[in-house]
Amino acid sequence: MKRSYRKGIIPSNIQIAPNIYEMKLATCDPGFGFKGKPGQFYMLRGWEAMDPFLARPISISDISNGVITFLYEVRGRGTHIFSKLKEGDVLELLGPLGAGFDLNVKGKVALISGGIGIAPLIYLMKRLGNNMDFYCGFRSVPYYTDRIEGKVNNIYITTEDGSVGHKGFVTELFIPEKYDTVITCGPTPMIKTVVEMCKEKNVPVYVSMENRMACGIGTCLGCAIETTSGMLRVCKEGPVFSGEEVIFDD
Amino acid sequence: MKRSYRKGIIPSNIQIAPNIYEMKLATCDPGFGFKGKPGQFYMLRGWEAMDPFLARPISISDISNGVITFLYEVRGRGTHIFSKLKEGDVLELLGPLGAGFDLNVKGKVALISGGIGIAPLIYLMKRLGNNMDFYCGFRSVPYYTDRIEGKVNNIYITTEDGSVGHKGFVTELFIPEKYDTVITCGPTPMIKTVVEMCKEKNVPVYVSMENRMACGIGTCLGCAIETTSGMLRVCKEGPVFSGEEVIFDD
Amino acid sequence: MISTKVEICGVEFKNPVIVASGTFGFGREYAEYFPLSRLGGISSKGLTLNKRDGNKGIRIYEVASGIMNSIGLQNPGIDGFIENELPFMEKQGTVILANVGGNTLEEYIISVDKLNDTNIDIIELNISCPNVKKGGMAFGIRSKTAYEVVTEVRSACKKPLIVKLSPNAEDIVEMAESCTKAGADGLSLVNTFNGMAIDIYNRKPVFNNITAGLSGPCIKPIALRMVYEVSKAVDIPIIGLGGIMDYGDAIEFIMAGAHCIQVGTANFIKPDISIDIIEGIEEFMKDEGIKSLDEIRGVV
Amino acid sequence: MISTKVEICGVEFKNPVIVASGTFGFGREYAEYFPLSRLGGISSKGLTLNKRDGNKGIRIYEVASGIMNSIGLQNPGIDGFIENELPFMEKQGTVILANVGGNTLEEYIISVDKLNDTNIDIIELNISCPNVKKGGMAFGIRSKTAYEVVTEVRSACKKPLIVKLSPNAEDIVEMAESCTKAGADGLSLVNTFNGMAIDIYNRKPVFNNITAGLSGPCIKPIALRMVYEVSKAVDIPIIGLGGIMDYGDAIEFIMAGAHCIQVGTANFIKPDISIDIIEGIEEFMKDEGIKSLDEIRGVV
Ligand SMILES: Cc1cc2nc3c(=O)[nH]c(=O)nc-3n(C[C@H](O)[C@H](O)[C@H](O)COP(=O)(O)OP(=O)(O)OC[C@H]3O[C@@H](n4cnc5c(N)ncnc54)[C@H](O)[C@@H]3O)c2cc1C
Ligand SMILES: Cc1cc2nc3c(=O)[nH]c(=O)nc-3n(C[C@H](O)[C@H](O)[C@H](O)COP(=O)(O)OP(=O)(O)OC[C@H]3O[C@@H](n4cnc5c(N)ncnc54)[C@H](O)[C@@H]3O)c2cc1C
Ligand SMILES: Cc1cc2nc3c(=O)[nH]c(=O)nc-3n(C[C@H](O)[C@H](O)[C@H](O)COP(=O)(O)O)c2cc1C
Ligand SMILES: Cc1cc2nc3c(=O)[nH]c(=O)nc-3n(C[C@H](O)[C@H](O)[C@H](O)COP(=O)(O)O)c2cc1C
Ligand code: FES
Ligand code: FES
Fold first, then answer.
1. Which of C66, C221, D35, D128 is most exposed, with the fewest beta carbons within 10 Å of its own?
2. How many angstroms separate the alpha carbon of residue B113 from the centre of ligand 2?
3. Pocket test for ligand 4, best of D73, D192, D241 (most atoms within 8 A of CB)
4. SS (H, E, C) chain A
């Protein structure tokens, strides 16, 4: 039997860039450590009451010695509450959920992130043995790029305001035909562009999708997206899909 | 203009008996200190979201140098949240509210508390210059009695299980005719008994009443109770009433 | 320059934010927290012909993201209002709505007649208070009964007449249409939803009246839907309310078609929340380049 | 010894806790968290005659103490259910309710007919799904239409028939009476409330269908009131639901007159919350010296 929500205790929850936080969680159950593959996620609750009501899906950004790292952006009420949690505070989490990335990809890999989409790719980068380039785009202040340095061949940083690296979008630097596999996570418009670029050059591309979730385990059908194989659940069949199968609506 | 909710920061929030906590709050506004008379109360919110929805009324148990002390019992969700707050946490409070106790009482005074009803009476005791006896009843573990010791002539402690002091209820020890004024706060059945005892002996008695509150400032009429002068608001005309005017329903 | 002005029934509101009946008393207590002149308007506590003490037992009960109330129209009566409360309200520099409730048609008529000669701006006819046992409820449920009541009150009433609808109505759109036909100058909706709570340890309903009125953010999605449907169906101005807690909620109601909005239960959560909402609306308009609320009213 | 057993329509439930349609899939995902045999029963995801992909756009939207959903009855169709899901469900050792939705009376009849020859225990007829545009809604609003539909389905149906009522019905009591007269063996209520949300920055409704179904603790007080009123009016067993989050809520519904209760949206908050509720009911019974739920059912 899988365990339902577990309590995790916070060793640290620090701001690493404007609106961006890194939270670590250790288990409250002796002898147990958090688990999960790159691309998988947890549903997090930082409240006992019924408003906010739903848990929030957050990707695994790292796991080491059973301590899990989440990298998150404050967007609304839930992530705002997360950002206020302090060392020693406890929150509840359910997971690991979703199918995650295929770790048996071949050849040279491009990892492409937009904003907080870097979170799952960092963990993936650590687990992939491949020859990799990392393209990461930010609005203004880059973060986590020090963790990439040295682990990949090339790192391409872009910012929308040009404050660091190339001014503009990652997709302006990316050349699909240089890679055997492309893996991307970020805002949907970016994902869509990457997929189109890859399709054009016939390069296999994997995308990690976001959608609003209620249950996180596949029963509410709230997170289902249109694919060439019908409606598929981001929380169950996903969040990683082949770029070819996702039908992006306009 | 009165100020709406203010933020208060917690220097300490400690458990002093099973389910009983003492929380201190300092102001977050420079140059401002919390104010209030004995018998007045504040509406406290320890949450930003909409569940729990209402603020909770808690009596002033002490104020010194602008730092306010609340003594509270964990009963439901709101007070449970209060009990989890830690040093440095911030909560919102509105007050002081209500009319409070008349401090110009004459003669020998009996203060009679049941359980957490001790909270406002402690502050009152500190502000009254009178000759006083303090009757305090508890379920099992007494608290705050060390603050009473030395400040009154006699202190009578009762516990329902007999673990400390007289086994039984305070009303079993209390002799109304010994006093010129009686002031009581606690569970309604206790208040009712005290009022009946005093009425019989023609001793003036003041009671601090509790009722469910929404607004705390006199507009919702949710806290109104029946009195000989019509419906009166616990939050506005009260929480202190003359025992003779309250109509207790059965 | 942005303008938050709204006109309904020939009455000008400096902004669309009215405080809702029963959640603001007659303004006195709130006047200690902010100048009431900042408000678009104030709807008085529900008035009945005669003074009422209201209900016994528990009157307020917290539920998930809301409250239930069973106040039972405690109020000083029309005469008490005119004598003791109205003089204060008149001085505040904001639109005054007199919220009128009642048990019988006759009572409504006499009440309205007494208010005709005062300085109140608008009569808000509450045909929907769920906490009055006789009549009050029934008026607001069936469109036919409502039509009759509103027709009679309309002919007795010399002030602009806004009818406040109950979400417990069988068919809110039909109800709105009936009241419009009967001559209402505007509609306000919604009043509280009929709800219930049980004390499982005492094995009894929490409220002496068994049911009570549900309000607060928990009802917002349903209230908004009703305002949307009604605004598509009738041509008279609508005041939207039900669970409005911030400017975002207020804008939603306006986009659903409301001319003004009312802030009810939220007043209990923060005495000056209506000011936050007014300022929030202004900022939203600035940020989004909206000059007048006409541009967004009913855009959805 | 306490017993949580309940019998309705000749079917025995080991306890009164059924998981609600659309919130539990066909049980597979939850089976990973606890043995489904612990449940009183499972109501399947709403089934339509043909496979449906459901709605596009936003499907789930969080609101104060609840959610709105516009799934649009995504389901494998009756045949897909019988072939791929039912065999799994049959093995779980709990009562199976097949929740049947549809756009037309004909569709209902064919669906029910296909289910007649299966091992499902009960048909729960959903006359109230607000997310299907044609027909589905209307059936659940007017008592007269519901009467006609239920009468026809009743004569086609060889299984016990429970009709699931919409809280959007014009008059929930009249609706319950009509369905009872039409031959329903039981009633379940409530389905989701019709609500709305607006994206104020895009100036558009959040949902492609404009309105969506509201569920969760925010609706509990209204749902409880409806269950109470209906249970006083009809003699057939009632399954109560709407915002049940813990055993206390469940006991409230039982005291209001429900035989069984359903746990819906709460399943999304904690996969094994239904087990907490079952255990909570048992403990409450022990603490309060209640041997059978018959002692407290409808005490209020
Ligand atoms: C599989 C998956 C993995 C994710 N991993 C991360 C991560 O590692 N780091 C990170 O910062 N964010 C991640 N997100 C996005 C994150 O879940 C949302 O930013 C977050 O839920 C917003 O919650 P809120 O309370 O701050 O915002 P609110 O707007 O208050 O949320 C309201 C509701 O909408 C939902 N919601 C709002 N925005 C999104 C969104 N973009 N995606 C999904 N649901 C949303 C919320 O979950 C909530 O139910 C992930 C999303 C998914 C689906
Ligand atoms: C004027 C006044 C002064 C008070 N002073 C103190 C004090 O100094 N220390 C202390 O421990 N308690 C005090 N109380 C009681 C305290 O307000 C309640 O115990 C508290 O509100 C319970 O909240 P909860 O969330 O823990 O319980 P819940 O049961 O979850 O509360 C649900 C709702 O019911 C209300 N409620 C429940 N019980 C009571 C009650 N007994 N009185 C009023 N409202 C209630 C809550 O405020 C809330 O709105 C006082 C009450 C009043 C009216
Ligand atoms: C305590 C209380 C008292 C109320 N009294 C009245 C009243 O006297 N007359 C009336 O028309 N509405 C009354 N209402 C209803 C509100 O005006 C409003 O219609 C309802 O609460 C929904 O709005 P909200 O969710 O913003 O509170 C009352 C509501 C509450 C909470
Ligand atoms: C995501 C979701 C899907 C639902 N699907 C169905 C359905 O297919 N058939 C049905 O009868 N009810 C459906 N419902 C309604 C629930 O079964 C239940 O009646 C309603 O949500 C109220 O109960 P709750 O507040 O406990 O969730 C659905 C509810 C939700 C939240
Ligand atoms: S979140 Fe419920 S099915 Fe994916
Ligand atoms: S709490 Fe609102 S009037 Fe007293």
1. D35
2. 16
3. D192
4. CCCCCEEEEEEEEEEEECCEEEEEEEECCCCCCCCCCCCCEEEEECCCCCECCCCEEEECCEEECCEEEEEEECCCHHHHHHHHCCCCCEEEEEEEECCCCCCCCCCCEEEEEEHHHHHHHHHHHHHCCCCEEEEEEECCCCCCHHHHCCCCCEEEEEECCCCCCEECCHHHCCCHHHCCEEEEECCHHHHHHHHHHHHHHCCCEEEECCCCCCCCCCCCCCCEEEECCEEEECCCCCCEEECCCECCCC
ipTM here? 0.96
Question: Does D65 touch chain B if contact means CB atoms closer than 8 Å?
Answer: yes
pLDDT 10s digits, A181-228: 999 999 999 999 999 999 999 999 999 999 999 999 999 999 999 999
The Å distance, Cα A212 to ligand 1 centre, comes to 7
Confirm whether C129 is a catalytic residue: yes
Residue at A90: amino acid letter:
V
- CATH of B6-97 given 2.130.10.150, 3.40.50.970, 3.40.50.300, 2.40.30.10: 2.40.30.10
**C67: Cβ–Cβ under 8 A, 6 or more apart, which residues?**
B53, B54, B214, C60, C61, C214, C215, C216, C265, C268
Report whether the peptide linkage leading into residue D76 is cis, meaning its omega lies within 30 degrees of zero: no
- Which amino acids bring their CB within 6 angstroms of ligand 3? B 220; C 20-23, 45-46, 69, 71, 73, 99, 101, 126, 129, 164, 191-192, 215-216, 219, 241-244, 264-266
CA–CA–CA angle A7, A11, A15 (5° rounding): 110
Distant-in-sequence, close-in-space partners of D227: CB < 8 Å, separation ≥ 6 = D189, D190, D238, D240, D242, D253, D256, D257, D258
* Domain definitions of chain C by residue range: 6-295
Contact between A152 and A130 (Cβ < 8 Å): no
The one-digit pLDDT tens for each residue of chain D (300 residues) are: 899 999 998 999 999 999 999 999 999 999 999 999 999 999 999 999 999 999 999 999 999 999 999 999 999 999 999 999 999 999 999 999 999 998 888 999 999 999 999 999 999 999 876 555 444 456 888 898 899 999 999 999 999 999 999 999 999 999 999 999 999 999 999 999 999 999 999 999 999 999 999 999 999 999 999 999 999 999 999 999 999 999 999 999 999 999 999 999 999 999 999 999 999 999 999 999 999 999 999 999
Q: Are C59 and C69 in contact (CB under 8 A)?
A: yes
Distance A233 CA to ligand 5 centre (A): 6
Locate the domains of chain B by residue range: 6-97, 101-207, 209-250
Nearest to C251 among D197, D200, D220 (CB): D200
Mutate to test the pocket of ligand 5, among A213, A225, A227 (most ligand atoms within 8 A of CB): A213
Q: Residues of D with CB below 8 A from A217's CB?
A: 29-30, 32, 271
| Architecture field, domain A101-207 | 3-Layer(aba) Sandwich (3.40)
Q: Does C65 touch chain A (CB under 8 A)?
A: yes
List of residues 6+ apart from C117 with CB closer than 8 A? none
Interface contact flag, C198 D243, Cβ < 8 Å: no
CB contact under 8 A, C216 and B226: no
Q: Which of C54, C63, C217 faces B231 most closely, judged by CB atoms?
A: C54
pTM of the model: 0.97
Instruction: Return the CATH number of the domain spanning residue range D6-295.
Output: 3.20.20.70
The third-level CATH classification (topology) of the domain covering A209-250 is Dihydroorotate dehydrogenase B (pyrk subunit); domain 3 (2.10.240)
Q: Determine the residue type at D55.
A: N
Indicate which of A47, A48, A50 best probes the interface with C, i.e. most C CBs within 10 Å of its own CB: A50
Name the token pair of B75.
């009963």
